[in-house]
Amino acid sequence: MKLEREHKLRGRVVAAAEAVLADQGYVSAIDVLGAIGWLDTTTLKRWQQSRIPCLEAGIQTREERIAEALHLLRDWATEKHLAPSETEYLAKTPARTPLRFSTSGDAAREGLYRTHWLRQDLSDKQVKRIKAASSRPPELVVVQSLKSDWTCHRCSGSGDLLIMEEPGPSCLPCAGLGALVFLAAGNATLSRRAKAKSEVHAVVVRFSRARKRYERQGLLVHPAALHEAERELGLIPTDPPSPP
Ligand SMILES: [Zn+2]
Question: What pTM was estimated for this model as a whole?
Answer without folding.
Answer: 0.71
